[in-house]
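Write out the 3D structure for:
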Amino acid sequence: MIIEDVTYSIDWKRFKKGTSFFIPCLNPAKCKPQVVEVLRRLKMKHEIRPVVEDGIKGLRVWRI
């Protein structure tokens, strides 16, 4: 998955219900549709929110 010209390798098999991951990005609103596209293709229920963690802006993605 490529977000803002950075390639992220997510081990989707290990992304279990109740877990989450953080994707740092400068424009979360612009990046969210790219993540949603992958999650929908994989038929994963999810929640995505823009967050600031340790002073870094990005997206937090939960599998539900």
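The chain has one helix and five strands.
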